[in-house]
Write a structure and sequence with these properties.
Order of helices and strands: HHHHHHHEEHHHHHH
Radius of gyration: 21 Å
Structural class: mainly alpha
Length: 323
């Protein structure tokens, strides 16, 4: 029972998604890049180093969930009293101790990886995430828009952290979207690919955070928060979220014919069925109801679309093997 409470507190399902995101990017982008461009320096993110860095990311995220619940007890008592575990099953003192331990261990793991290239400045990424999560929980999440953007930025950093810690890909930062090899073959710049996934992670997370604020409107209002739904109202906040969704949808719509004309029919079909259509219907369904249950479902649907986006990494890799 106590183990279940701890797992609930650290949002173990979300942590699995974070780990899977980094794993798929490492396996489907980093490893193929090292085999495609043989002239690259030796990769730093070996399987062991990748696991250490991914564990660091997961630990920081777990610490963020803990500290968020620590400062949100009164709001959660109003919005979701049945789902609370902090103070009911887990003492607040134990939670804050675990928060500190997770952050320290995360920094130690990242330090070990960075030390292999004496690039200790890379640790700024983990320090930045830790600081942002603290200020998000204490201040930002109660402010207009800044809390939503902070979480979206942290989600994008989940992807970009791998790029920071893989110096063999740093030369691609200054190159074009498509790179031509000496044998005439053309490949997509892996840095641009990572940037694309980071962009979608940023936009979709921003959308989901606004929807979660819609769901938690009552408790946030009573605590004096100034979230977007409170300042603008549910309808205007919905319109803004739908506009953000269009910024995510448009590149996907343009990608479908691009995949088709390049002969990558599998990715064209997958993008249309798993990403474009679900996001299209999500946009039109968002303002159909104005209940906490409806917004909770909308939030879950966005999470599924994000998982489908991660899955496109595997689909793309499989389609390239088939071709």
């Amino acid at each position: 029972m106590l183990l279940s409470a701890w797992l609930t507190l650290i949002r173990w399902k979300n942590l699995l998604i974070i780990f899977a995101t980094q794993l798929f990017i490492w396996a489907c982008v980093f490893l193929p890049a090292s085999s495609t461009w043989n002239h690259l320096p030796k990769s730093l993110l070996t399987p062991i180093n990748f696991l250490l860095l991914a564990s660091s990311t997961v630990l920081i995220a777990a610490a963020g969930y803990i500290i968020n619940d620590y400062f949100d007890i009164r709001i959660d008592l109003i919005n979701k009293p049945d789902k609370m575990v902090l103070e009911k099953q887990i003492p607040r003192r134990m939670a804050i101790i675990l928060h500190g331990c997770c952050n320290l261990l995360a920094l130690a793991l990242a330090w070990y990886v960075a030390a292999q290239r004496t690039a200790y400045e890379w640790l700024f990424v983990q320090l930045l995430c830790t600081i942002l999560l603290w200020f998000y929980s204490t201040t930002f999440k109660r402010k207009f828009m800044i809390g939503n953007v902070t979480v979206a930025l942290l989600t994008a950093l989940t992807i970009l952290t791998l790029l920071v810690y893989e110096p063999s890909l740093h030369p691609f930062l200054t190159q074009a979207i498509f790179i031509k090899e000496s044998n005439g073959a053309t490949h997509l710049n892996p840095v641009w690919l990572l940037g694309g996934y980071a962009y979608f992670a940023f936009i979709l997370t921003w959308m989901r955070e606004i929807v979660k604020d819609m769901e938690d409107l009552k408790g946030d209002f009573e605590e004096g928060c100034e979230t977007m739904p409170i300042r603008w109202g549910l309808r205007r906040a919905s319109y803004f979220t739908q506009a953000l969704a269009c910024f995510a949808l448009l590149p996907l719509v343009l990608a479908v014919p691009s995949f088709y004309h390049s002969g990558n029919f599998i990715m064209a079909i997958y993008t249309m069925l798993a990403l474009v259509l679900p996001l299209f219907f999500w946009i039109f369904n968002l303002h159909q109801k104005a209940t906490a249950q409806h917004y909770a479902r909308s939030s879950s649907q966005l999470k599924l679309i994000m998982v489908a986006g991660i899955g496109s990494l595997i689909i793309n890799l499989i389609s390239e093997w088939i071709q």
